[in-house]
Amino acid sequence: VPTPLEPVDQDTLRRLHAVALRCRGGRRPDPGRARAHRLPPQSAVQAEIEDFRPYRPGDDLRFADWPSFARLGQLLIRRYREERSSHLHILLDCSRSMAVPAGDRKFAFAQNVAWLLAYLALHNETSVRLVPCAGRPAALGESPVMRPGRMGLVTAREFLSGLDPGGSTDLDLAVRRYLGRRDAHRGLVVLVSDLLLPPQRLDEALRALVGAGHEVAAIHVRGARECRVPGRAGVYRIRDAETGEERLAWLSRREARGRLAAAARLDESIDRILGRQRVRSVRADPAQAPGAFLLQALPRLDIVR
Amino acid sequence: MTLELARTDVLLAAPALFALLLLLHRRRPRIEPLEVSSLLLWEGTGDERAAARRARRVSPRFWLQLLGLLLLVAALAGPTLVEPPRSGRRLLLLVDVSASMQARVAGSTRFELARAEVRRRLGALGPGDRAMLVAFSSRPRIVEPWTDRRARLDDALERLAPDDAPDGLRAALTLARAILRQAGTGSEAVLVSDRPVRVSGAPAGVSLETVAIGGGLDAVRRVDAPDDASAEADPSRGAAEIAGPGPGGPTDPANVAITGLDVSQGPFTALADTTAHATVRNFSSSRPVTLVARSGPAGQEAEIGRWTATLAADEQRVFVLRGIPAAGRVEFALAHDDEGDALAIDDRATTWIRPQGAVRTLAVSDDPALIATLRRLTEATGTFDLVPASIAGRAAGPAADHDLAIFHRASTAGWTKGALVIAPVEDELFSVGGTIGDVRTVDWDPSSPLARHLQYPLSHQGLAARVLVPRFDARPVVRVAAEHGDVPVVWAGEHGGRRVAALAFDIASLDLGAEENLPVLVLVLNALRWLDPLVDDLPAVVPTGHAPSVDETSHRLRSAPAGASFPFARLGEYVFDTPAGERRYVAELRDARESDLRVGASEVDIVWPAPVDAAAPSPQPEGPETGPLAPLLYGLALTVLAGEWWLYRRARGEAHA
Predict the structure, then answer these.
(1) Which of A64, B31, B71, B605 has its CA 20 to 30 A from that of B640?
(2) For the range B292-298, what are the long-range contacts, defined as Cβ-Cβ under 8 Å and sequence gap of 24 or more?
């Protein structure tokens, strides 16, 4: 069942509005200059008409609005909103592991963090691309672009709300597929994931992203219950939520320390890979409030000014 | 020690329970599923084959459940540990702790001598021998059940003290017989008493030795004295006597006692005509006696009589006290030094003189003839001050000034004290029906206080009465057989904590002075006396060792002399709280047999009573080492199942956490 996004409280919004996202080509919004004359975009397909003005001698007739000339008898020149060159790519892990254990609510947390990141980027006049990794089949291959403006916010919210965790984390495939797109502009890539995938595949995916010229940051979601042993001692058939692989084990409270050690070893291995690829990362506890977490995490990820 | 089962068929349930429990445990999943986000976090969880082996093991909770159920089954089977007969001796010690055992003898008391004798007997017990200690005064009690622990017996003996009550030898022997019957053959009993007694009819296989504690202890003489043919057949039976020379000898303890105290005070006798009779008896050789009578509350007595006389040996004399100055407590005491009298507790006697003339009686009636009759009647009694009032006038008059009231054809509404209702009207006390005619016979309840001295046949003529249905707790006292059946015409009962008596017939027209109406006069006087609030306030004097008619469910003993028990084992005042208020009893020794301390004076032959006396305490089991094991097994089963439940709760709690 898709998780509805949590409402953002006014205080968090106010604090987010004060944050200036630092990504390639990004800048702070300047309402005073928002409607200033801007050069038309190189690609009209991607451009958005912002205003009209009467024709003046010397204007490029390619931007004359002929339909209005036909209706009004007055030649008007189209004015375009400036095409942003800054891009934020949010790679959201939608694999089955993000939903297990259910009590951790990892996926809901990741959804909300992605939504707040998208909000922050759009507020900073930065276009956002949401790239779900794994998840329900319909989400595979979908990676909508949200441009600054109300519609961008609505699109981002609807897209995130419709995501549903399932399948295994195929970060490598998702990255390769995404980088193969023509419109995958270089920019800031934020990976929101539990990073529970074989280390070499994580390494390959990050290497591909960095190699394509992206600046990469990672939000590593780790739930408190993920390595907690059951309260009742006994024999358990442990099943991997993504791969379906099973293992028999006797679990008791004495095992708790061993699980913590195993988690620490895995985290150490992940941190080593992230460091090697110069990927800044921050570990997230899904029990935290997403807004508060993000406000603390952004400086550590070094993506704000 | 062997184990016996009361029900072996219950054991058949054990295999079935085991199978059922095993089935239930097999049905439970042994391997529980656990979905995790990634096996990367669950590396190094141990050997899978070892885990599979553990999954096949049976849970510890199963063994606890099985153990608990097996214990329950075992308890249901009713196991009992039966101890085989011991090889050691069994010695039952019956110790007399009656009042006469307090008699001083040669610087000691009879009880101390008896205690020394018992101590000597206990010292002669060998390893494995067991003894039981039973003390008896008016009633027997087991002081220490069968035991081979010498220290416990010694402690129990040290705690023992003589009562102020007479002995109840027959009840003690009855209890002893029941105890010895359980103990089996070969048991011995020793009766230590100051009453020389020959007991015949001992149970087969039981030897009884009687030890008589008497005058001087200069010599301890053991006398083998089989008293009949059966005793001759049992050479172990005998008697020992710890005494000096025979009865009346120079070492006989001297004792003069007040053996009786009666007050001659009729229901309505004036104080000036009241007399008290004290009976004094000399149980030793001729000696002068001084008797003093004192009156007044304890601690403030004033001497009101003194008599001096010389009483011959065994002489009994009655001293009469006249001219008692005031109602209340009157005490008689023998004035002599302690050395001249061996037993002090029979030297005092107390009684109470009922107060008179203070009962203010309200008579509510509109009939002047009845008022005149009641006035003559109450004046004759000297007890009641009659205050007449009309029915209309009574409503306005204060009720608090009067102690009781007589209502004639008047409602008792609002009255909160004792009342005699004559020819009642419909009110909160009675529902009044039709009139009775054609009275054939009259009958009454002789146990009712209203029917005391009612010996004459009641006249039929004046008993034209109405049918009364009481609305409170009342008992019929007099009934008449009329044409409609048996109808009560006199009622007595309690309503709201006050006494109410009712006559269904009207006595206004009767001449109570006439001979044929004498029974009605007696009824009215009895009713007035029964309603007299002063009568019940006086303490009742009862002999020690007797139990007055105390309802143990509603009477609560508030205070009693130290160490006293019920029935009254000590001299002194016992106060009970009852639903009707405080009730006091004064216990005194009034037993000539206990006061007669002469050796052999009260020598008796007694046949050992066979049936178990219902009043005697039943003998106790011998000890905790024998007896049913079921309670223990039930306890163990509950403990085990509680432990299993605790494990289950803990596992469940952890799982929830």
Answers:
(1) B31
(2) B292/B332, B292/B333, B292/B334, B292/B335, B293/B321, B293/B330, B293/B331, B293/B332, B294/B330, B294/B331, B294/B333, B295/B324, B295/B325, B295/B326, B295/B328, B295/B329, B295/B330, B295/B331, B296/B326, B296/B328, B296/B329, B297/B328, B297/B329, B298/B329
Radius of gyration of chain B (CA): 37
The helix (run of H) or strand (run of E) holding residue B387 is strand B384-389
Whole-angstrom Cα distance, residue B444 to residue B432?
21
Q: Choosing among B30, B31, B41, which should be mutated to test the A contact, i.e. which has the most A CBs within 10 A?
A: B41
- pLDDT tens digits, A244-292: 999 998 888 778 888 888 899 999 999 999 999 999 999 999 999 999 9
- Opening angle at CA B290, ends B286 and B291, nearest 5: 125
Question: Per-residue pLDDT tens for B290-318?
Answer: 999 999 887 888 999 999 999 998 899 99
Please give the torsion angle defined by the CA atoms of residues A290, A291, A295 and A301, in that order, rounded to the nearest 10 degrees: 40
Which of A40-54, A76-90, B180-194, B280-294 has maximum average pLDDT? B280-294
Among B25, B31, B35, most A C-beta atoms within 10 A, so best to mutate, is B35
The residues, ordered by sequence, that sit 6+ positions from A176 with a Cβ below 8 Å of its Cβ are A208
Residues 6+ apart with CB under 8 A from B640: B64, B67, B68, B71
Q: What is this model's ipTM? A: 0.78
Q: Give the bridge partners for B578, in sequence order.
A: B581
Report the alpha-carbon distance of residue B548 to residue B541 in Å, rounded.
10
Among candidate residues A14, A157, A179, A151, the one with its CA nearest the CA of residue A81: A151
HSE-up of residue A39 (Cα within 13 Å, Cβ side): 4
- Is residue B119 classed as helix, strand or coil in its secondary structure? helix
Chain A, window 210-239: residues with a beta carbon less than 8 angstroms from a chain B beta carbon = 223, 226-227, 230-239
Cβ atoms of B494 and B502 closer than 8 Å = no
Give the start-end residues of each E strand in B483-545.
Answer: 485-495, 498-503, 540-543
* Residues A130, A145: Cα–Cα separation, whole Å: 7
Alpha-carbon span B102 to B123, nearest angstrom? 24
Q: What are the residues facing B136 on neighbouring strands?
A: B96, B140
- Residue B427 CB: number of other CB atoms within 10 A? 16
- The answer to whether A237 contacts B42, with C-beta atoms less than 8 Å apart, is no
3-state secondary structure of B147: strand
Query: Are residues A226 and B36, on separate chains, in Cβ contact within 8 Å?
Result: yes
Close Cβ partners of A150 (under 8 Å, ≥ 6 residues apart): none
Q: Is beta strand B485-495 parallel, antiparallel or unpaired with respect to B498-503?
A: antiparallel
Distance between first and last Cα of chain A:
37
Nearest-Cα distance to chain B for A156, in Å, is 27
- Alpha carbon A208 to its chain centroid, in Å, reads 17
Any alpha helices (H) in B211-258, and if so which ranges? 229-233
Chain-centre distance for alpha carbon B59: 59
**Residue B236: which pLDDT band, with cuts at 50, 70 and 90?**
very low
- For residue A241, the chain B residue with the least C-alpha distance is B37
Q: What phi and psi values does residue B32 have, to the nearest 5 degrees?
A: -100, 140
Q: Per-residue DSSP letters for A135-179?
A: SSGGGTT---EE-SSHHHHHHHHHHHHT----S---HHHHHHHHH
Q: B199: part of which helix (H) or strand (E)?
A: strand B197-200
DSSP state of B302: E
Q: Could you identify the residue written with the tokens 């006989």? A: B252
pLDDT at position A41, please?
Answer: 43
Q: Which residue in B438, B452, B257, B417 sits closest to B349, CA to CA?
A: B257
Strand B581-588 vs strand B540-543: parallel, antiparallel, or unpaired? parallel
